[in-house]
Amino acid sequence: MQQQLGFIFPGQGSQKVGMLADLAEAYGQIEETFSEASEVLGYDLWALCQNDPDEQLGLTHITQPAILTASIAIWRLWCSQGGARPALLAGHSLGEYSALVCSESLTFTDAVALVRKRGELMQTAVPVGTGAMAAIVGLSDSEVVSICENHSGAKVVEPVNFNSPGQIVIAGHKEAVENAMQACKEKGAKRAIPLPVSAPFHSSLMRPAAAQFVEVLEAVAFSSPKIPVLQNYKLSLSKDNSCNIQDNLVNQIFSLVPWTSTIRFFNEKGVNTVVECGPGRVLCGLNKRISAGMEALPTESRAAFEAALEAWQA
């Protein structure tokens, strides 16, 4: 089978102070992309990402445009340096917006404004302290699904990220999440770890945010993707129906992220190498547990980027 390249884009949790610093020293194009985002946001995004004196990078409405911008900066650099064109794109939650920009379905400036608003709506959908998320390690998908069902009632807890075999994130009301965590430990989970987030992302508690986001999306123009994007919601492969893209983005807010199935879909389509286009190496780490035979290349540093580029020069 002919070698195929895929690009995957990270979501929240991949940000860190100083990200892309050495890439920016070597390639001025990185800061140019951040300057473009800063004009939309009304503050110096590059300075915030490099210094973060007020510890704002972890705030959802700032994290989302920061990671999106980092991913697009790397993508633009990849293209300008003669990197190979991928056959398929996908993003983990927020990363889906990066994929849509790279497919030319969505403009970068529109995406920056969208993810900032998305972050604001997701943050305010559930009062702080009401919701929670936790990572469950060492149980099967079916075991975690069953435990969540058994501990949901007036208070809900749901599986929201199937990140890799044996690694599932749950979310919902704080009390229900804590009860489910205890049940997972009793079932034999290796770890049940509360996540340092301020809202139960991708759970049904996010429906109010999704309802408000509909109007935001209606004001933005989408085009047919020039590279197919495998969207999170129901593993929808968006090629030419822009209306479906918008519907999928709304539903994604309160629906699970099937990342394990995403990478397996790439495999089925003949993709045997993926480039993680963005800060961090979270998705590369997950890939090792999902598909040992699929090579995953990070791009977070100059050395990593140039190694990936050398392997996949157009």
Brief synopsis:
Helix content is 47%, strand content 16%. It is an alpha/beta fold and 314 residues long.
Q: Count every helix, treating DSSP H or I runs of 4 or more residues as helices.
A: 13
Q: How many E-type strands?
A: 10
The CATH superfamily of the largest domain is identified as Malonyl-Coenzyme A Acyl Carrier Protein, domain 2
Give the spatial strand order of the biggest sheet. 2-1-9-10
Task: Please identify, by name, the CATH architecture of the largest domain.
Answer: 3-Layer(aba) Sandwich
**Could you spell the SSE succession in H and E letters?**
EHHHHEHHEHEEHEHEEHHEHEH
Instruction: Give the amount of beta strand, in percent.
Output: 15-25%
Do you know the CATH topology of the largest domain?
Answer: Malonyl-Coenzyme A Acyl Carrier Protein, domain 2
Bin the helical content.
Answer: 40-55%
CATH class of the largest domain: Alpha Beta
Can you tell me the residue ranges where pLDDT is under 50 for at least 5 consecutive residues?
none
Straight-line N-to-C gap: 19 Å
> How would you classify the helix and strand content by structural class?
alpha/beta
Largest sheet: 4 strands, parallel
Mean pLDDT: 95
Cα gyration radius (Å): 19 Å
Molecular shape:
globular
Q: Please indicate the count of domains.
A: 2
